[in-house]
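Incident log entry.

Two folding requests arrived from the same account within the same minute. Monitoring flagged them as a possible duplicate submission, but the sequences differ. Recording both here for audit purposes.

Request one:
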Amino acid sequence: MIRFENVGLRYGMGPEILQDLTFQIEPQSFQFLTGPSGAGKTSLIRLLFMSLRPTRGLIKVFDRDLSVIGKQELPKLRRKIGVVFQDFRLLDHLTTYENVALPLRVAGKDEADYRSDVVDLLKWVGLGDRMHVLPPVLSGGEKQRAAIARALITRPEILLADEPTGNVDPPLARRLLRLFIELNKLGTSVIIATHDIALLEQVDARRMVLADGRLSIFD
């Protein structure tokens, strides 16, 4: 589904922060992306989501070479990928329900067809009583859960989650991890960027470890 070959990334004229990354993300796979703070996990997530172009190397997503894909084609590819960013990126003028339903609205779906799915998912992540409030009223943990629900609502082929349990307590972190596992069983490839050791130890999954700009993989 995703293939990197000798990918490097630098910002401006600075040194490469990611060097010679070569790996593949297989269909229906589950992996953790980990490493020390500042190792480049968020930059790698952005490369995977195609919101950032590499300085060098080859990236293929769904068998398409990103170096020859026009900007007008990227949104269609991105619809196959759900992403949870550290900064949530919720729209403050939309309610929690409207934020989670937004990807379905943009895709032209009829609300009558998705309303119950959105409501059920919000209840599952513990936001059933917060679906009609605006993001500025939500706590950090509630915003995190809303962002996760929005990423999951389309049942994406790939889920990218950048520190998805960073603002929730351990019991809810375990619950969210179970949700990711169930989504993976339904066929979604899952990539979770985290430095939470307790989270890593709960699943026997592939580990992709970033350190000093280089990637090591432990299956």
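Request two (distinct sequence, not a duplicate):
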Amino acid sequence: MSFGRKTADVSADDALPGRSGAVQVPEAHFVNGASLEPPFPEGSESVVFGMGCFWGAERIFWQVPGGVTTAAGYAGGFTPNPTYEEVCTGRTGHAEVALVVYDPQVVSFDDLMKQFWEQHDPTTLNRQGNDAGTQYRSAVYTTTDGQRDAAKRSLDAYQSALSAGGHGAITTELRDAPTFYYAEDYHQQYLAKNPGGYCNHGFCQVSYPGD
């Protein structure tokens, strides 16, 4: 997944036009059988994480206790209902992301942020390992005011830990969640369907300090 190496941001005027129809989403999560689409269970919350390749990012969060469902998709750009090939050109503005729906009574948002920070390198702009391009950027797209405030505190705390370890500045895009577009069927829970598939996620060498 290392093709599509455009690193300059695309403008709305220059973005690909996309299409009106969305991709067909599988009825059930391949791993846990939950629905990939809303409505989600009462009391659950959702957040969208960009951590580079969405295959590995999604797997991280379907393994978290308290996770309700996950999905691979695209967000943060301009092109409506983009295809994977379009996103890889860098001309949609979208990042590869994982939608994470979770039960806040079982897993805290801060616990999710711990997984987010520790399992990728948020200091590399538009790159994770050999994957380069704006679609691989680090991003947190929040859906509630509480999430937004907690994410900002979390970023500050992790930046302090990184700085203490001699690492650089966080490049993570943090903002309210834009429209989430589901990725094609074959991307959903890809690493469960293809256990030997590509993944470059793993501990980033700096522990998240928590609250």
